């Protein structure tokens, strides 16, 4: 048992090291990290389902990106349909519960995942979109 614990600790440290290194990497500045255009964002997301995470909450929602810039958003509290469009450098989402209140982000390709900044503000906690299993639907959804 004594020999097992150091080996286990070493294995855990080696497993965690890449994740810690990824999180501590400096992010490019705004000038060297252009926001994705609508065409670029659509090419990375259309037909896919993405898990949405942030550094404070972790996984907090899942979104399926459909043709025609349509989406289905699902979290613990709700499941709803929406759409998105490019406004300036931002990708803005309109959901059926608040069709007059867009939620806008700048998105940045990170090679295998996408980072988003609320309203393009780098002083906010970014979100991370990671490929997930999908698609999702609201059919049969009962809520939390």
UniProtKB/TrEMBL annotation:
Q: Which UniProt keywords apply?
A: Signal
Renumbered to this chain, the signal peptide range is: 1-21
Q: Identify this protein by name.
A: Uncharacterized protein
Species annotation = Pseudogemmobacter humi
């Amino acid at each position: 048992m004594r020999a097992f614990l150091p080996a286990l600790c070493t294995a855990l440290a080696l497993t965690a090291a890449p994740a810690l290194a990824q999180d501590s990497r400096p992010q490019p500045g705004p000038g060297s990290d252009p926001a994705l255009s609508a065409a670029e964002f659509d090419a990375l997301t259309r037909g896919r389902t993405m898990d949405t995470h942030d550094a404070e909450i972790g996984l907090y929602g899942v979104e399926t990106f459909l043709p025609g810039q349509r989406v289905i958003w699902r979290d613990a509290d709700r499941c709803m349909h929406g759409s998105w469009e490019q406004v300036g450098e931002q990708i803005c989402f309109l959901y059926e519960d608040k069709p007059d209140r867009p939620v806008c982000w700048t998105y940045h390709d990170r090679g295998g995942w996408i980072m988003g900044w609320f309203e393009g503000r780098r002083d906010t906690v970014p979100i991370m979109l990671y490929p997930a299993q999908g698609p999702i639907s609201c059919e049969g959804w009962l809520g939390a």
